[in-house]
Design brief:
This protein is mainly alpha-helical. The chain has 13 helices and 5 strands. A 3-stranded parallel β-sheet has the order 1-2-3. Strands 4-5 form a two-stranded parallel sheet. Strand 4, helix 8 and strand 5 form a beta-alpha-beta unit. The mean pLDDT is about 95. Bound molecules: adenosine-5'-triphosphate and L-tryptophanamide (LTN).
């Protein structure tokens, strides 16, 4: 069976965008692949974090993965920082990565421009991501388009290492989620719905209560026409709501256009709010159940034990090939 792996960084609350674009994708793929899903908490440290906030979020992310339908029997679910072999592997890989390559990453260039003082971690972050992937001989990495370049760097590092030290790593490929399924901010549909967005009115967090979900959707930016028609250029707000409805109902865009023919935006938005609430309330109930039992810890203990075993073997193999032994 081929292997897939992905991780999410706990740098904000999980959003409906993360659910539709990442978690639901993993859920769909879990029957066809051996699947790994982790919380990339080490990656969160590249920018300053409040330790108490981070601690809470890590737990929320892990519980939400499972509550959203990621099956622990089909997925290895774990917390990145509990596997100390990963940063150790990352160091070995850093020494096979050129400074030029790392400093050419678009995300590094953008984020380093935003701050006067930024950490070395911001530069080496894609190498840690390569370690996340390469330790487990992963075939496919489902990611958003913004992470494609990082997976390509992981490929380059793996190819180089294999050439110098002999076959060690499987060469991974990015798996970019379906084009078009980019959920936009409800207030400003020109940008994606993002967990690090400061204005909460355009972002639905998975743990938002029913009242605020409805309020945010009813207040979503639309247009002055009265026509539920898909046109991402001229009607980005309506098209975004249609994408959300389509992803959550499994109806096609054409079916949705027919369903709302001749109806006003108020009726349409209410239907979107209903389906978002119907989707998120059971997830929230399961999330609370998980936090109030020891089920979550048992799942994570199992995940990290397997992950460490695999990483340990890869680390030993790498060290031997590189001459690190007495
Ligand atoms: P940040 O704002 O901190 O960059 P983010 O919410 O954009 O966070 P990422 O951590 O970059 O999320 O992405 C995690 C995963 O969620 C990726 O696979 C990405 O493709 C997916 N994702 C994030 N936002 C959306 C969105 N609005 N629509 C669809 N998929 C999304
Ligand atoms: N860098 C990614 C999160 C991430 C990841 C990974 C994704 C860390 N390690 C390994 C896929 C595979 C992000 O910022 N979204």
């Amino acid at each position: 069976m081929k292997k897939i792996l992905t991780g999410l960084k706990p740098t904000g609350e999980l959003t409906l965008g993360n659910y539709i674009g990442a978690i639901k994708q993993m859920q769909k793929l879990q029957d066809q692949y051996e699947s790994y899903l982790f919380v990339a908490d080490l990656h969160a440290l590249t920018v300053p974090q409040d330790p108490n906030e981070l601690r809470r979020r890590i737990k929320d992310f892990l519980a939400l993965y499972i509550a959203c339908g990621i099956d622990p029997k089909k997925n290895m679910i774990y917390l990145q920082s509990e596997n100390e072999y990963i940063p150790a592997i990352s160091w070995l890989l850093e020494c096979s990565t050129y400074y030029g390559e790392a400093s050419r990453m678009i995300q590094f260039k953008e984020k380093s421009k935003q701050h006067k003082n930024f950490s070395v971690g911001l530069l080496t972050y894609p190498v840690l991501m390569a370690a996340d992937i390469l330790y487990a001989d992963i075939d496919f990495v489902p990611v958003g388009i913004d992470q494609k370049q990082h997976v390509e760097l992981a490929r380059d590092i793996a190819i180089r290492f294999n050439k110098v030290y002999g076959d060690t790593f499987v060469i991974p490929e990015p798996l970019i989620s379906e084009v078009g399924i980019k959920i936009k901010d409800l207030k400003d549909p020109s940008k994606k719905m993002s967990k690090s967005e400061e204005n909460p009115n355009g972002v639905i967090a998975l743990l938002d209560d029913e009242k605020s979900i409805r309020k945010k959707i009813m207040g979503a930016t639309t247009d002055s026409e009265m026509n539920v028609h898909f046109d991402e250029v001229n009607k980005p707000g309506i098209s975004n709501l249609m994408n959300i409805y389509s992803a959550l109902s499994n109806k096609t865009i054409e079916e949705i256009e027919k369903e709302f023919e001749g109806q006003n935006y108020g009726t349409f938005k209410k239907k979107i709010a209903d389906i978002v609430v119907e989707t998120l309330i059971p997830i929230q109930e399961r999330y609370h159940e998980l936090l109030n039992s020891d089920e979550l810890d048992l799942i994570l203990d199992e995940g990290i034990t397997k992950s460490k075993e695999i990483a340990k073997n890869k680390y030993i193999e790498m060290k031997k090939k590189m001459g690190l032994e007495r």
